[in-house]
Amino acid sequence: MIGVFTLFSAFPFYWMLITTFKRTGDLMKRGNNPFIYNEPPTLENLRVLFFDTLYVRWLGNTLLVGVLVVVITLLLAVPAGYALARLTGRWGEQLGIGIFLTYLVPPTLLFIPMSRVIGDLGLQDSLWSLVLVYPSFTVPFCTWLLMGFFKAIPPDLEEAAMIDGESRLGAFVKIVIPISVAGILTVVIFTLTLVMQEFVYALTFISSVSQFTVSVGVPTFLVRGDVYFWGSLMAGCFIASVPVAVLYNFFVDRFIAGFTVGAIK
Q1: Which one, of 95, 111, 141, lies nearest residue 205 by Cα?
Q2: Cβ of 72: how many Cβ atoms within 10 Å?
Q3: Which of 187, 217, 257, 262 is positioned for an S-S bond with 148, CB 3.0–4.6 A?
């Protein structure tokens, strides 16, 4: 059963990889076996991706926005989650649920007020518009997630540190943060994944080709009317998804622990 699930999970990556090096004729001919190379592999799809588009620039834009959104999310969600878990007493849970409910508001409903804010700030066609908007999605969910994680840490540990002379901030930094690595890693992975796959706001707020992120640039330039550059599309998706898959693989235990602890507390 595990083997079947592994094959099922790995098949999209296999399909993207094999299509990356397939010739168009090999891919489109109905009589060919789609799971193997019927004609010699080619690098033409990679040439189109890297030299006929700004794919490397889009990767850099995505990474820049992702890092900045992760930093903003951690700076806001970590202290907010800790405060809700420790400092607000019985109201903390209700406030945490209220913050989580804001995450459930469909992004399409927030589009009009967000557009007004971006316009008033003069951030149209700038990556800073995405840096400003994305934390409105990530901070509520990550605050709720970290609140549950902080609740799982016994307050006695912090009280012992404060008896030994540490301030509350010192106990938080030296005791709580190291224990909460799984929850913080969950926040980092969740935020990076959201930034890489978000499409609607990135398409609406950014109009310059050089400012596109991967999620917008790849389909915009490799789908022209009814012509799909499947090989280059699969190459772009494979290159962008492999680092996230490797990150998940390295920290899968901590990621699952972060989600389960945050969900049940």
Answers
A1: 111
A2: 17
A3: 262
Q: What is the DSSP string of 49-108?
A: HHHSS-HHHHHHHHHHHHHHHHHHHHHHHHHHHHHHHHTSTTHHHHHHHHHHHHHTS-HH
> Hey, is 224 helix, strand or coil?
strand
- Tokens 């990767």 belong to 59
Q: Distance between CA 203 and CA 184 in Å, rounded?
A: 29
**Mean pLDDT, to the nearest integer, of 137-165?**
84
Report the SS3 class of residue 195: helix
Buried b (16+ CB within 10 A) or exposed e, 38-61: eeeebeebbebbbeebbbebbbeb
- Looking at residue 57, its pLDDT comes to 94
- Between CA 90 and CA 120 the distance in angstroms is 39
- CA distances (Å), origin 170, targets 92, 119, 148, 173, 182: 22, 41, 21, 5, 20
Nearest Cα to Cα of residue 47 among 197, 225, 229, 175: 229
Between CA 227 and CA 184, with CA 202 as vertex, the angle to 5 degrees is 120
For 173-190, what is each residue's pLDDT tens digit? Answer: 888 888 888 888 888 888
- Going by pLDDT thresholds of 50, 70 and 90, the confidence category of residue 262 is low
Under 8 Å between Cβ of 224 and 111 = no
